[in-house]
Amino acid sequence: MQSKNFAEQFITGVFLLRYAKGARGERELIAIFSEKGFSVIRAAGSGVSSLCPDILVFKKGKQYAFECKAWDSGSLSIEKEKFEFLKNWEDNTGITTFIAWRISRVGWKFMYLGELEENPKSYTVTMSRARAIDRSLDKLL
Hints:
Blueprint: H1 6-35, E1 39-42, E2 55-59, E3 62-70, E4 75-79, H2 80-93, E5 96-103, E6 107-112, E7 117-118, E8 122-126, H3 127-133
Parallel strand pairs: 3-5
Antiparallel strand pairs: 1-2, 2-3, 4-8, 5-6, 7-8
């Protein structure tokens, strides 16, 4: 078996670092909602498959679904196919679905799917837009 070249190793490493950062963000959000008395489900295959949002939370009539992203950039994009899947999932279940974006030194920001802007290849929200929407964790608890 031939070993991976440097480029393949680098790409694999970047993917694993991003996956680990995203998984940490999901665990953080799970802990926060659990501590506030919510029942929480993390989807099997979260971060790998597109079968449903990453996290589902429930508490006395409140129910939310979250597609979690931990991304340090001026904007966040969701591929059109993933976005459309999330929208169909929301329409089918009736569970309000959010994009949960963890921004370093800012914290979590939550956007309704309809608050993202459609582009040719994706749906996007800028950091300034996410901050202007100002839907923080406290508003969901």
